[in-house]
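From the methods appendix. Each design record in this collection lists the tokenized structure first, followed by the designed amino acid sequence. Records were kept in a plain field format so they could be parsed without special tools. The example shown here is representative of the layout used throughout.

RECORD:
FOLD TOKENS (197 positions):
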């Protein structure tokens, strides 16, 4: 019942509350980006959503418009193109906060597999095979509180599948409570869910 009905209300109310509480921060970031970037402040990008459907995700812009889409280890090539402020936004995940609008639109959930670009074909295929694409992508998720970027694609897909098959209110609350400390610590390695066997 929670997965099919209550979670939608949980997502909607959570996104509204987060937007209200974080509105001063969002405003400050918006103003700084308006001053420091020549491009649009909000970045639109195609991502893979529930059941493999493509949707447009919103982020604060941290890269120039002509930056190519790189995946996996190739991402290190764009590090020199990131300003100090943009690096701060990315490290703290503040650049992801406009996705609260995606949640209100129904494209995303507060909790779920992190949405990836279609070019990340390996991870998309692993998620499809494991059933992880059966739930909406999330602002944060089980993989994020169990390793984040240190995980390999197969590990991410495993955690995503565990979540997709065991969506509960308690699980969502636990993931939310673990997300902020992990961002602050900047490690994302500690685990509170066991590995899939």
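DESIGN:
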């Amino acid at each position: 019942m929670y997965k099919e009905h209550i979670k939608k209300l949980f997502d909607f109310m959570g996104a509204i509350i987060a937007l209200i509480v974080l509105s001063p921060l969002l405003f400050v970031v918006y103003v700084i980006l308006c001053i420091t970037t020549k491009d649009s402040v909000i970045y639109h990008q195609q991502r893979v959503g529930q059941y493999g459907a493509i949707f447009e995700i919103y982020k604060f812009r941290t890269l120039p418009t002509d930056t190519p889409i790189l995946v996996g280890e190739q991402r290190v090539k764009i590090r020199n193109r990131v300003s100090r402020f943009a690096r701060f936004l990315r490290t703290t995940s503040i650049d992801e906060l406009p996705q609260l609008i995606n949640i209100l639109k129904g494209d995303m959930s507060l909790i779920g597999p992190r949405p990836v670009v279609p070019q990340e074909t390996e991870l998309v295929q692993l998620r499809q095979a494991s059933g992880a694409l059966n739930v909406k992508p999330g602002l944060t998720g089980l993989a994020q509180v169990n390793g984040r970027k240190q995980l390999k694609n197969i590990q991410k897909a495993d955690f995503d599948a565990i979540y997709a098959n065991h969506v509960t209110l308690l699980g969502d609350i636990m993931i939310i409570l673990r997300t902020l400390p992990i961002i602050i610590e900047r490690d994302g390695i500690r685990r509170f869910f066991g590995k899939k066997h």
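APPENDIX NOTE: The first helix runs from residue 2 to 36.
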